[in-house]
Design goal:
The protein is α/β, with parallel strands linked by helices. The chain contains 14 helices and 18 strands. A hairpin with a 4-residue loop joins strand 17 and strand 18.
Length: about 475
C-alpha cells in the first residue's frame, strides 16, 4: 500500500479510545456487592461470563427451588463476554468444517442441537426481556481471493452432498456484492438462519439481572481462590469469605481453572477489534448491507465484521497473539500495531468509506484448545463440572455448555452427554517453550498459506493428520 494511504488510515485512529465499545454503554449496571463471610448453597457457579450466567439461569429454570450462588472475580461480562464481536452462532464446533472433520458420525446431531440451542437463546431473550439488540440476521462467509471463491463453491457442493446445506446459499461475485458492496468480495456462502447479531455486554448484563430476579445470589469482585473437599461437598475460598456447596460448576474459561489438571488444555489467544463512528445514511448506502448480516472472510487469518444497532462497523480479527507462557495480563488488551493493520485492511475492503474515523480499539483473551471447540468434564466424584475452550464462538455455545455441565452434575445420560464431543477431551498443550514454538510456527504457516493460494505446508499437513489442524 502507498505510504500516503497508510498515513491517512492511521489518522483514522487518532481519537480511538483503547477500551471496548460495548462495555462503555450508559446502561451498564452497578456491580453486586462482594461476598464477605460464609455462604452455603446447593450449587456454586464460578465465573460471571456467559458460561457461568447461563449455568446459573438454567439451573434455576430447571428447578426454581434450587439454591444457587454465583461468584465473579470482577464484574459480570467484563472479559471475553463483553469484548467479543457479538456473533451468536448456532455452531457448537467452531464451524461446520471443523465439526465434520472431528465428529463426522455426529455432525447431523451436532447441527440439530446447535440450531435448537440458538432458538432457545432467542426464546430466552424474549422470556427474560434481555435488551441486547438481538437480530437473527445470518452470516456471509466471503471470499476475497480467487482460490477462496473456488473453495467456497466446492465446500457448498460438499454440504449439499452430505445433506448439510439447508438454509445456506452460495453467492457469486455479483450476488454477494448485492448484499454488501466491497470490491474485494468475489463470492460468498450465506447462512441465513444460523447466526444472530447482538450487543455482547448487554446480553451478559441482562443474564445477570435475570439470574438475580430468579433468586440467584450474585457476588461480584469476588474471585474464587481455591476449591477443596469439605464434608459431603466442597468449599471455595474467596478473599473475604468462603462458599460451601454441594456442587460446583466452573465457567472460568481462559482464567486459571480451579482444577489444576484442566489448565494444560487451554491457552489464551488475544484478539483485537476496532469500532467506527456511526455511519451516515449516504455512507451506509454506499456499501448496501441492508440485511445487516454478520460477515467474515475465508482466509486463515480472517476478519469478522458487523453493524451495531447504531450503524457503526465493528472490524476485528486477523492477528491472533499468543503470549509466551500463556499469561493473561491487562497490558495485552491494547496493541497499536494491530490496530494500524486492521485500519488498513478496513479501508482496503471499503474504500468508499475513506474518512470514517474509529472511536474505540480494544483486545481481549479467548480461551482455545487443540480441537478449537469446547470440552467438558467432571471432578471430585462428579460434584464439580467444567466447560472451557470455546475458541471465539462462545456467545452461543456457552449456553449449550451450561446445559452439559448441569446434565453432568445431575448424573444424567442425555443426548448431550452421550456425544463423543462431550465424552472425549482434546490433546493438552505441551509445556513451554514447546507451546509457544508450535503456536508461532502454526501462525507463520497459516499466513504463508494465505499468501500462496491456500497451499498448506508440511507443518500444517502434519497438524491436520494429528487432528490439530486449523481449517478456517
Amino acid at each position: 500500500m502507498a505510504p500516503s494511504a497508510m498515513t491517512r488510515w492511521i489518522k483514522s485512529l487518532s481519537e480511538a479510545q483503547p477500551a471496548p465499545y460495548w462495555l462503555e454503554d450508559p446502561g451498564k449496571p452497578h456491580p453486586e456487592p462482594a461476598l464477605t463471610g460464609a455462604e452455603t448453597c446447593e450449587l456454586l457457579v464460578v465465573g460471571g461470563g456467559y458460561s457461568g450466567l447461563w449455568t446459573a439461569l438454567i439451573a434455576k429454570e430447571r428447578d426454581p427451588r434450587r439454591d444457587v450462588v454465583l461468584v465473579e472475580g470482577r464484574e459480570a461480562g467484563w472479559a471475553a463476554s463483553g469484548r467479543n464481536g457479538g456473533f451468536c452462532a448456532a455452531s457448537l464446533t467452531h464451524g461446520l468444517a471443523n465439526g465434520l472433520t472431528r465428529w463426522p458420525g455426529e455432525i447431523h446431531k451436532l447441527q440439530e442441537l446447535g440450531a435448537r440451542n440458538l432458538d432457545e437463546i432467542e426464546k430466552a431473550v424474549a422470556r427474560h426481556s434481555l435488551d441486547c439488540d438481538f437480530e437473527r440476521t445470518g452470516e456471509i462467509d466471503v471470499a476475497t481471493e480467487t482460490y477462496q471463491a473456488c473453495e467456497l463453491r466446492d465446500w457448498y457442493a460438499e454440504m449439499e452432498r452430505r445433506g448439510l446445506a439447508e438454509g445456506t446459499e452460495f453467492l457469486d461475485a455479483e450476488a454477494v456484492r448485492e448484499q454488501v458492496d466491497s470490491p474485494t468480495f468475489l463470492a460468498g456462502l450465506y447462512d441465513r438462519r444460523g447466526v444472530a447479531m447482538l450487543h455482547p455486554a448487554k446480553l451478559a448484563w441482562g443474564l445477570k439481572r435475570a439470574c438475580v430476579q430468579l433468586g440467584v445470589r450474585v457476588y461480584e469482585h469476588t474471585p474464587a481462590l481455591t476449591l477443596k473437599p469439605y464434608g459431603a461437598g466442597l468449599a471455595v475460598r474467596t478473599p473475604y469469605g468462603e462458599v460451601r456447596a454441594r456442587q460446583v460448576a466452573l465457567g472460568t474459561n481462559i482464567f486459571p481453572n480451579l482444577l489444576r489438571r484442566v489448565r494444560s488444555y487451554t491457552v489464551p489467544v488475544y484478539d483485537y477489534a476496532l469500532m467506527t463512528e456511526p455511519l451516515s445514511a449516504d455512507q451506509l448506502a454506499s456499501i448496501g448491507w441492508q440485511n445487516r448480516q454478520g460477515l467474515g472472510d475465508s482466509a486463515n487469518q480472517f476478519h469478522y465484521f458487523r453493524l451495531s444497532a447504531d450503524n457503526r462497523i465493528l472490524w476485528g480479527g486477523y492477528d491472533a497473539i499468543y503470549p509466551y507462557g500463556g499469561r493473561v495480563r491487562a497490558e495485552y488488551d491494547d496493541r497499536p500495531e494491530t490496530y494500524a493493520k486492521l485500519a488498513g485492511h478496513f479501508f482496503t475492503c471499503f474504500p468508499q468509506l475513506e474518512g470514517v474515523r474509529f472511536t474505540h480499539a480494544w483486545g481481549g483473551a479467548i480461551d482455545t484448545c487443540s480441537r478449537f471447540s469446547a470440552f467438558f468434564g467432571t471432578a471430585h466424584q462428579g460434584k464439580v463440572a467444567y466447560a472451557a475452550g470455546y475458541t471465539g464462538l462462545g456467545v452461543g455455545a456457552t449456553r449449550f455448555g451450561a446445559e452439559v455441565m448441569l446434565d453432568l452434575l445431575a448424573g444424567e445420560r442425555t443426548e448431550r452427554t452421550e456425544l463423543e464431543m462431550v465424552r472425549k477431551k482434546p490433546l493438552p498443550f505441551p509445556p513451554e517453550p514447546f507451546a509457544w514454538t508450535g503456536i508461532a510456527l502454526t501462525r507463520w504457516s497459516l499466513a504463508r498459506a494465505d499468501a500462496h493460494g491456500g497451499r498448506r505446508n508440511f507443518w500444517l499437513k502434519t497438524m491436520d493428520r494429528l487432528g490439530l489442524g486449523f481449517d478456517s
